[in-house]
Design a protein that fits this description.
This protein has about 270 residues and is α+β, with helices and mostly antiparallel strands. It contains 8 helices and 9 strands. The chain has 3 domains: about 90 residues, 434 Repressor (Amino-terminal Domain) (Orthogonal Bundle), CATH 1.10.260; about 50 residues; about 110 residues, Immunoglobulin-like (Sandwich).
């Protein structure tokens, strides 16, 4: 088709005939002539109209119009046949991806993906990454747990002793009190290390209290060597009797350590 269009266009230009003259002489539409020269045969509404236009132009320009139209007709039919073959081939390829065959292709890709995933999962790099991640989590958790301030609980015997001691301050009898330390560290009272039992429990002696101010210092140290102090003062007030006011223990703490005194009657002395 390209050769025919080119041959007609070159022949017209060689003869020096304009499109208007060709259209006037052949009674053909100027638009039809342009479509033929530009190889736009698809613009014709019918194939017969395009072939007839080629035949008339060929004869007018001194070419064999019948042969030219036959060449174009053959090329157009061959093009249509090739397009038809392409459609059939595409349909066959689609039929190969039927549900029956498609699941095989999909399963094959799935097996490949699983194999790659398992290979990555058990690779040395991934195992090393998990090990480093686990160790990092362990040390971060260890650091957090051992930088939090410890909590010291003093139980009822100590409270009972304080009450008895304030009311009978002249006694020289030594008494014992119990408590529990939550957190890693050690406890010192008046520079004396208090042994700890399993679970952080401890038991120690306490001397009779003075009638006025009494100062205790608890020192705790965690595994990182960070030492904190718990300082609290126990005093007696003459404004109220012990039977009227049981909150006779004043606790002074710093911002690093929490301290709690537990009473049997669930009243907490602050």
């Amino acid at each position: 088709m390209y050769k025919v269009s080119k041959k007609i266009s070159e022949r017209r230009k060689e003869l020096g005939i304009s499109l208007d003259i060709v259209s006037h002489d052949t009674k053909l539409s100027k638009e039809y002539i342009m479509w033929v020269e530009e190889q736009n045969f698809s613009n014709f509404d019918k194939l017969s109209t395009a072939l007839n236009t080629i035949k008339i132009l060929g004869d007018y320009l001194g070419l064999n119009g019948s042969n030219l139209s036959k060449i174009v007709e053959r090329d157009i039919k061959m093009s249509q046949l090739n397009n038809h073959k392409k459609i059939i081939t595409k349909a066959k390829n689609l039929s190969k991806r039927s549900p029956k065959n498609f699941h095989k292709v999909y399963f094959k890709k799935l097996k490949t993906s699983l194999a790659v995933f398992i290979k990555i999962l058990f690779s040395k790099f991934f195992i090393s990454f998990l090990a480093v991640l686990g160790l990092s989590a362990f040390f971060v958790n260890l650091f957090i747990n051992n930088t939090k301030p410890p909590v010291i609980f003093l139980y009822e015997p100590f409270e009972t002793y304080l009450e008895n001691s304030l009311s009978t301050s002249t006694t020289d009898t030594k008494r014992r009190f119990k408590g529990k330390l939550e957190g890693i560290g050690e406890i010192k009272i008046n520079n004396k290390t208090i042994p700890q039992l399993p679970g952080g429990f401890f038991e120690s002696e306490i001397f009779p209290l003075n009638q006025y101010e009494n100062r205790f210092v608890f020192k705790t140290r965690n595994i990182f060597g960070l030492e904190k102090e718990i300082i609290f003062t126990i005093f007696r007030t003459d404004l109220y009797s012990l039977s009227e006011n049981k909150n006779f223990v004043s606790i002074i703490t710093n911002e690093f350590v929490r301290f709690l005194v537990v009473k049997v009657d669930n009243e907490i002395a602050y």
